[in-house]
Batch of 4 targets.
Target 1
Amino acid sequence: MDVQDTIVAAATPAGRSALAVVRIDGPLAYELSAKGLGRSAPLPERRAAAAVWRDLRGEPVDQVVAVRWAAGRSFTGGDTLELTCHGNPLLVRRIVEDLLARGARMAEPGEFTRRAYLAGRMDLTQAEGVADLIHANGERALEAARRLLAGELGRLVAAWSERLLSTLATLEAHIDFPEEDLPAEDPRGPAAALAALASELSEYARTARHDAALRGGLRVAVVGAPNAGKSSLLNALTGAARALVSPEAGTTRDWIEAPVGGLPLAVTAVDTAGLREGGGAVERAGMERSLEQAESAHFLLLVVDASAPPPSLPPRLTTALRPGRCLIVANKSDLPQHPALPSFMPNAPRVKACLLDSRDGERLRAALAAALVDADLAPGADELVVSVRHADALRRAAGALEDARSLLNAPARTELAAERCREALDALGEIVGRIDNERMLDKLFASFCIGK
């Protein structure tokens, strides 16, 4: 992956659209584009110019709009040109193939963003924010990606590094200049500073528990007895008649899933077969699948008929309804409440509903969103979530700082403590990319889109 190569790729998804963008970056970008556009002089910088793109034979390919950015002022830091053409995949392919024939090569996944990182246009966390922004599938994931791209984590790492360098300077002064007129060495101050920093790093590392939910979303199983209103709840959450609703018991024989919109992160609701004793072979098979879905889901919505005696639940479902992982939806709340309902799972949070009323959907989605945050399955709105990679580096840094703090409490171990502090600095540097690790960069940018 040579930064001196001129690379080209479509920066918009494959398929038909009104417009498409072809991105060219590298030292030959202007020369190749000038030939394709039939210009003898370079395009004006950062000004759109309309022209006809012609291939090597001089045949017109498409009318395009071209914009150039000079080195030092482009996204990548190098000479860059973007061509906007009509969104027919055949036209995009012909323009890309023509540029390849003129001397460019096909960009690898994430190569444009990697060039921006290598040119110092962004740190590694911001580069990851680019990919996260593209792939985010919920508002909370979008916000987390925006914060990464804005450099919030990078600024935190810089502040942590400065604090650590200040403490390290104090330690090394006593190591390097023991005969100088310095105050007597007192390890308590540096040890307290290292302990406080280690605690802060560990706290941020713990936010990675939400990383999988932001990236992949959560599965919420809707469970309960037959005719409790499970299918009605699925329809209310999704805002569509996704599941068949009938007063006949055992209507749902298999699980049905659908995405729930209007939540801060991606959630898939799974409607399951009603759980009861007896039933035919097909219904029993459906109940077995319901229990499997309940056991594998991140969260459970237990629908109960508020006007009827509390249901008798199978032991496997009772086990899956563990504390902090379920919300009781008391349906048919327009009817008189059964006197035994308050004593049924009294410690589980619950929400009243009348699923015949289509207006309940928004209120139920809000209740589900709040329950997921309370269950610590989703991050709060103001919480900065780090990735698994970031968390690994933060934990290693925190561990090194804890080791350094312990060494300071032992006599004549200042030099060893300083070495552990330097290891912590290296771990923090990995987060923003100050430590050059080619294999790590290859793996990270391989997950990006081609053309980004």
Note: The chain has a mean pLDDT of 85.
Target 2
Amino acid sequence: MKKSCAGRVRRNITLVIAAVFVSVTISFPVMGTGRSQPQISQWSIGTLNEGERYGIYPVDWYYDGFRETISQERLNELVDGVDSKLSQLGLEKDQGFIPSTYKEDGTRNTVLIRLYNSIGTYKLPDDLQDSKVNAVVYMQERGIINGTNKGLALQTDCTVEQAVVFATRLIEDSYSAVGAGSKGLMWQVNNKGNTVYLLGSIHVGDTSLYPLHKDVKEAFKDSDMLLVEADVFNVGAELEEFMKMGMYTDGTSIKNHISEETYGKLVEFLELIGLPDDAYDGFKPWIIANELSTLMIADPNYVEGQIGASELGVDMYFLTTSTLMNKPIGELEGMVSQGNLFNNMPMEVQEERLNQILDDILNPESQAGVESADLIKLWFEKWNKGDIDGFAESFLEEREEAASEFESLLFGKRDKDMSDKLVNLLEKDGETTYFVVVGAGHLVEEGTIVDILSEKGYKVERFWE
């Protein structure tokens, strides 16, 4: 007997809710791209960490002529991406602006003029408007181009790498200048000179989440340490133990633990992406489900070559940025702890979750898949605006609808344990600032971290109020 469509939608929404509770997603070796090393210069890495999240260029460029002169085709694609991102600011058009003329060549001057024409078409705050003398003046005054002791080298060829850096700086500066960017779900706690910023994350994302608001980035920059649920960059013993948990070591394979029907769907998926039928045979259902779950929450406007949903997650952004800044990273749980959470699930729960995810991937136009995509899009919008109440209302409504054994494992003791660790930090001697990124569900759900800290006597204030 077939289950109702409404019931299936509720079950699949459970998978979306998991995206705000559990951070660990590991890419399997069989999913590797086999690419060569990216052609990235050391000086540009920090800026590219920002820019690749804006969706203005495909990161495939890193591997193909990235340090070569930019072609007109690539420059057009980059400018189109910049135009799209700037249009999201909702600024009024400057009817008096006259675009600067340019040659269709690959010089730095041409790239700067093309980018200047993109921002110049809008009415800007007075200080920016005053800089709209010409492309070079604007780009210098806004720090988009800095030059060297040899000058701006405007007539020299512009590499793809340089053009992407200019474009990224322009977008980041423009959003910052008008007070735009994602605000996130954020709180602040102070005690004994210590500060804890709490940012509720969605562990998957899309390009609409970036750039973040300058005040969020400033709070992070001023923090002494980043704390996350699990540091997925920890490639030592924890990663090895996590992977061992997710694999069969007793001579059996996944075929021995799930139904023929579910295994058939897994094989169908592997054939779809061009991998051997037995590529996942050594892995348990829960770890495969974790890997594949990000595919059902992909950006519908995803351009081939952009980074994926898990890499666009908020915690992944801060992990990467902390690594580049050499900022210390701490864990509130760790990969082994989260691995145990999944590994101890009954096999029927693991299989049901895998089965649902495969259904959505193989049938992307199903009502369940559409409902899930619409829900995550709504949450992104609420997160973008810093709308804690709106996010909480939607989240809690879906939590009530989607109650399940799997979902019930995602909170409770975990919140108490994480809160205890935060209390220890707040009670330490000295003055230390911590930037804490945890799944939003651990902050908006009744009885979770924000409530626990408040009940212990700490004043937990909303960052944006």
Note: The first strand starts at residue 185 and ends at 191.
Target 3
Amino acid sequence: MRYLPHTEEEIGEMLAATGRRSLDDLFAHLPDDVRYEGDIDIPGPLSEWELTDHLQDLGQSMFTGSSRAVLIGAGSYDHHQPEIVRSLSGRAEFLTSYTPYQPEMAQGTLQGIFEFQTLTARLLGTEVANASMYDGASALAEALLMTLRIGKKKRTVAISSAVHPHYREVVRTYLAPGPFEIVELSLGEDGRTNLSGLDEIDDLAGVALQSPNFFGVIEDHAAGAELVHGLGALYVACFSEPLSFGLFKSPGSVGADIVCGEGQSFGMKQSFGGAGLGMFGCKQQFVRSMPGRVVGQTVDMEGKRGFVLTLSTREQHIRREKATSNICSNQGLCAMTAAIQMATLGRTGLRQLAKLNYDKAAYLRKGLLAAGARPLFSGPVFNEFAVIFADDFEPARERLLGKGIVAGLPLAPFYPDVGNAFLFCATETVSKTIIDEVLEEVRR
């Protein structure tokens, strides 16, 4: 079925109303140099089984999560998804629900979002959390816009160069149309962000650091927040691996004003960049500047527990000039899945799983260093890390690729100055057998 199933008669009536003789006439005002002439080279149609075979052939030509092991993190992490998470998130009332346009009529949806907000706020150490964002990158961009709103006449934000490159690219896209300046902060030898030059920025609205950062290094949020607050700016703590909060103090508990990042690790499989989940929390005093939606708890006229859409500061609901964002929320199913995963793990399970990730990465890192690699940075890491090989690592990487093991991400395309450096990751899904096999190939 076509998306716009209009008949020829209906099209004729609409053209007559617009004073045009054909659909092409609707675009006659466009200059010739921006119009495509000729037919677009699109392959012909395939039957269902032909298309299935074609997609299977394409799948076999690349290494995906179905490979034996993918030792790459870089913002997307392979974690075990408990069967209870798959089972509950696949229930029809969750799987088919949509953003409620009459929210108080959808108490189940609102309660699910409320539980997600509660678990998110506890995880991030913030006083309030919203109903989710699209992904970690857009969450960070919205967070920096939020610091500029709160800072009013301030026009500059600073962001660590160790923040995920894709996140920084989205931030630049968001801020480019406005009169804003983005300052990128350099790194020290330990892989942590150098904050020494911040006092030279006069109109600084916010500073964003990621921990663990793109190199897996743990930043000192407490020291960063104290320094930034002393300069009269807001401190934004970003993340791409929320599981790390099972071992390390939550950013909100050590002074971060806004905490945001990617929640894909909580119940969502890797799938060529989606689906993702933007987690977002802040201090209570900034709640009215926060983008997205907030679900609240109340009681009805009979004193029964109920849920309402407390804040919805999107231009769809309020005057455009007062809107904080055009984002309403992430897909509710992603937030629901993350809430189920967090509730299933609990505080103890989260800590145990985080410790397992830390130990697996430490075992791999120790083996690579013993095989002749050296660390790119000396700072503490979580479940991923960067190393430099004295010799060309590509032959060993190709041999491992032939065995279905994707070992390491070359960092030079993102950071040309790092040379022969690779980013490795080991989560709980990587067995000791796989790690030993990688180390054996590296030692050859």
Note: The mean pLDDT is 91.
Target 4
Amino acid sequence: MKILPFDFDRVASNDVLITNVAGETAILDNREFEILCNEDYEWISETRLNELIAKHFITNDDNFDLSVELLSNKLRSRKSYLSGFTSLHMIVLTLRCNCMCSYCHASSKGGVDDKKYDMDELTARNTVSIIFKTPSPVVKIEFQGGEPTLNFDILKVIVLYAEELNQTAKKELSFVICTNLLYLTDEQLQFLYKHKIDISTSCDGTKELHDFCRKSLISESAYDSFIANLKKCRDVYGEKDGPSALLTVTRNNLYHLRDIIDQYRFLGFDNMFIRALNPYGYAIDNKNNLDYSVEEFVKAYTDALSYIIELNLKGHFFVESYAAILLQRILTPFPTGFVDLQSPSGAGILGSIYYYDGEVYPADEGRMLAAKGDKKFLMGNVNKDSFEKIFDGKLIHKLVKSSCVECMPGCSYCAYKNFCGADPIRYYVESNDILGKRYSSGFCKKNKSIIKELLKYISIGDPNTMKVFWSWINRKPLEGCDDNK
């Protein structure tokens, strides 16, 4: 018998988590862990021994080559997102916005009539031309702002031109618009529906909570406008294919997550993405009024997660989308496509963002820094640079070399590295260094704490809870989900 490489972490006084390069996990008691380390396998139960062999923590001498091959296949599956290169392309149609959110990460401009922050048609066409140079067979174009509906004519130009180019390119093309739903005409809605453009929106909870941070510039209540247009969208798209919603957690709603979950369900949502406040844009300017510690967020998040699991166990299908992404990384060998949880970082090589003036950044956070005057992560401009210059320049090479958790200080020996990822732009904001400092990184602390919480549920192994988790991964209610994966 041979022992294969693994990482470990003590998760309780008598429990040790072990993980390997393929993302396989096992939780051993102290005695079993000592047996594994000393390779005294005659003292371990047959059931546990078979588990460790099946998960490639140990191997029979005769099967060493096969075990390495199986590990390689699983690792190749985890890294398969690298073969396609950039598939997510976010386009900032305008910085103008009809809503002033106190935590706006994008530093939107409140002058809704000032079009100097709009993308023009030439830049739009050049952006689409650059996008279709990607070798990825999949192209997803996401419209952002500001409020993208304020430059809807350019949105139409981009959609129609992309569809025209795709008649030859034959890529798997899709669109999504991120909108606050404050204003949406019937004509705009019909265009979105006709061209199968998914709608993503934001809801901060109850009317009081929503209106507190999200100040409408065109109506008395951002919440009332949101509700009216949410109904319009569902009337056209149908209940199942209507908008999805994201929750930004501030100090104002941090301790109301259970109420907000109930509100989401009341509004007809079957999922929510609980997003922590990030250190960009107006969230920095208003930090004293909005911010909280990582520990406070994790405590509130884990309570919300517990409540959502309870709801599912009672028969109410509802997904917390961030947990679902992490669960897919923990329970399957397949990549998630989520830019923030990749190694090397998905910034630039999985997703990129095109600013209203044609500047290209490797991630949304890069353009957020640029809005505050820091263009450290500028890759190029669609109006003067080629695809090769933008996507094969020094910056993107540096990001890739500096964001492989397998060899990053503080990450290389971490038991959770296969489930997490690297965020060099966030590290730069936190420590002025794209390698970052794991001991003080809020990104690291948050992700590790949430992963540990999910692993706790998995180690307990309650069959009904595991069915809930598989239903989230498959995005299907329990009765339509096979938990024997």
Note: The chain has a mean pLDDT of 94.
